Amino acid sequence: MARPRKSDLASLPDGGKVTMHNTLVSASHGLTLGEKRLVSLAVAKLSPSAAALPVKPIKIMAVDFAEQFGIEPDVAYKQLRAAQENLFNRYVRHVEHFGTNGRRVRVSKIRWVSSIHYEKGGGEVSLTFAPEVAQFLVQLKKHFTSYQLSKAAALRSTYSWRLFENLERFRDTGFWEVDMDRFHTIMDTPKSYQKNFNDTRRFVIDPSISELAAQTNISAQFEPIKKGRKVVRLRFTFSAASQ
């Protein structure tokens, strides 16, 4: 294991906020928990009001990774190694409906990063966001979601984290209603869950709501909206309790 380096978390812009355009918030991220942590910490190092797209690699040190997510240094090293190994092949999947009555569908796939490097023995990852993703992370003036990374750092499920991000998008209203197809896209659920709402509720929705209640200040409930016997939409209502 490399000698621990001094943390630079105190220098994060805006106190460590993750800010993304809503197009990215509602897309499929396709990331494991370790990859989600790596990407989110890299996003927190960007200034959303930056005038130009980031071109320099963003460095993530294992000491920062361990401190931010409350894990042991050896676990941080392992997660960083695993995350950088697969992140280059991960992509954002965005589904758009357009045309008459929204019948036409365009599916776009965008790589998260254009390059990534891991320093063996140094406990450091350097990554460069792909320009197509970077445009959703900087030069933002409207239609974006922002939250403190520290609020999501204790989450241990990507389902919980994705639900958290989408509820944060609507925190001013405390209300989020979403089609089931879009929900499955956002949450990256397996096809077996998409065919069985009970599995979606048991393994995705209920555990995520419970973890948000335990690890964040968000208390949420949901109501399934049916068309006949089929659940076609979900209605979430939530509130943020006092810290």
Describe what you observe in this structure:
This protein starts with 16 loop residues before the first strand and ends with a strand. The strands form four sheets. Strands 2-6-5 form a three-stranded antiparallel β-sheet. Strands 8-10-9 form a three-stranded antiparallel β-sheet. 37% of the residues lie in helices and 28% in strands. The chain has 243 residues and is of the alpha+beta class. The mean pLDDT is 91. The longest helix is centred in the last third of the chain and has 19 residues, at 197-215. Strand 5 and strand 6 form a beta hairpin. Helix 2 (33-44) crosses helix 4.
Could you tell me how far the N terminus lies from the C terminus, measured between alpha carbons in angstroms? 37 Å
Counting helices, strands and paired strands, the structural category is: alpha+beta
Parts with pLDDT < 50 across at least 5 consecutive residues: none
| Helix share bin | 25-40%
**Strand residue percentage:** 25-35%
Q: Which radius of gyration do the C-alpha atoms yield?
A: 18 Å
Count of DSSP H/I helices = 10
Globally, the shape reads: globular
Strand elements, count: 10
Q: What value does the average pLDDT take? A: 91
Query: What is the string of SSEs from the N terminus onward?
Result: EHHEHHEEEEHEHHEHHHEE
Largest sheet entry: 3 strands, antiparallel
Spatial sequence of strands, sheet with the most strands: 2-6-5
At a glance:
This protein is an alpha+beta fold. The chain contains 10 helices and 10 strands.
